[in-house]
Structure formats: C-alpha cells, structure tokens
Amino acid sequence: MIKSTGMIGLVLAAGALTACNSEADAPADGGPSGGCNVDYARLTSHRKVAFRADVMPILNGSCGLSGSCHDSKGPEAGLVLGDPCQRNDAGTCAPLSEAAIGAIYANLLEASRTAPAVKRVAPMKPAESFVLDKMADVQNTKGYACTPQEPTVEGCGTEMPPNDTLCLQAEGQERFDIVAAWVLQGAPND
Questions:
Q1: What are the pLDDT digits (tens) for 67-97?
Q2: Cis peptide before 161 (omega within 30 of 0)
C-alpha cells in the first residue's frame, strides 16, 4: 500500500528522468535488438514483486509521466499507465488514487489494441505479454498480426519508451526484470 507521498514522488520522478534521459543510457547484456535479456526462466527465483510498490512506479514514471504517452488524457493504443504529477499542497506529487491504480491494472490485463490476439499482460506468461515485448523491443520479431495505431507506424510499432529502449538505459534491465518477474509471478493486483 502507498504510504509516503514524498518517497513515491521521488521514485516516480527518478523513473521519469531515467526514461527521458538518453545520456543515462548504459548497455545491458544478453538480449535481442532492444538489449533486454528476455530469458524469463532466470527470473523464477526473483524476489516477490508487488504491483503497487514495485511495478506502478516503473510504469507511471516511464510511461504515464514521460512524454505523457500513456496518460489518461490521450493514451497511445488505449493503454493508460499513469498520469502526470498532480502536486499537493506540500508541492510533492500526490500518489495515484486506488481507483486509478485499479483501472490501470484492469487495463493491463486486456488484449492489446496493436496486437489484438495478444494480452498486454498474460499472467504467468511473460513471453506472451505484449507490454514486455514492447519494453524489450521484440514485438516486431514475434509474427503478431498488428494494427498500426498511426499511419506512419509499421508493424507492431516501436519500442517502449519510444526512441530509447528501456534495457539500454541505466538500470533498465533491472526495471524490466521487476515487471517481467511480476508477470511471471501471476501479475497479482497487490
């Protein structure tokens, strides 16, 4: 459960900065084109990952705040993963409401709009989860039948975050592994 708005604000801001800052890029080992190590079997002994405490700061910071690609005001591919920071009276980012987090969770379990035959998150099946494919930039190598979301975008689109594959960023593989381990652990709503 989210308890400290100051700490959550710092975590979200750090995630947003990392997602936007190409100078912080650092190569990760072991993966296909995007640099992510997508050998999910190595994550079977990963520590327990919690959706609210571990996954939401990554998704909201990298996807909901960074360039507002997946915020509620006009989400790309209909996927809402967070919202721009709403400052409280103390000047720190107010945490997302339980209703907003619940809606984000439900949205993640739906079929992808880009690849309708694939779930955005398939609990216990990270290799079949479109969100992870996009984060690892392997979505165009899987043979999915994709519907481009924009006329200028071909195939299954670009990596996420765009123009800056997650696993080529500093701490990107670690953040990818947290989301992938959560999916492997059944994607619980905790």
A1: 456 666 666 777 767 666 666 677 676 677 8
A2: yes
Question: Token pair for residue 157?
Answer: 């689109």
Look at residues 182, 170, 177, 173 and name the one whose alpha carbon lies nearest to residue 22. Answer: 170
Across 29-110, where does the E strand assignment appear?
A: none
DSSP state of 91: S
- Rounded Cα distance, 175 and 173, in Å: 5
User: What would the pLDDT profile of 32-68 be if each residue is shown by its tens digit?
Assistant: 455 789 999 999 999 999 999 999 888 876 544 444 5
The partner residues of 82 in beta bridges, in order of sequence, read 71
Q: For 46, which DSSP code?
A: P
d(CA 87, CA 95): 9
* Amino acid making up residue 25: D
Task: Report pLDDT for 177.
Answer: 96
Q: Which two tokens stand for residue 51?
A: 């959706």
Which DSSP string corresponds to 96-159? Answer: PPHHHHHHHHHHHTSBPSSSTTSBSS-TT-GGG-HHHHHHHT-GGGS------SSTT--TT---
d(CA 62, CA 187): 19
